[in-house]
Amino acid sequence: MSEIEFLKLENQKLRNYILLEVSEIEFKNRVDEIKQNFQNSADLERLIVPILDRIEKIKSEKLSIASELNLN
Hints:
It is built from 2 helices and no strands. By secondary structure, it is an all-alpha fold. The chain has one domain. Helix 1 packs antiparallel against helix 2.
């Protein structure tokens, strides 16, 4: 792999990391909004659990990319 190809690949991984970071923040904000709007609702857990699961997947993906890019 040439240095240019390597840099392009590394750049793409970094962009993916940034997108995941933004997504995680947006999902966390959404969970906060749902908690505020459905405080006393029996549906609260049903609404936020899938989002929390997605946040965990994003964290895992970020960790993998961070390790590849030596961001830790």
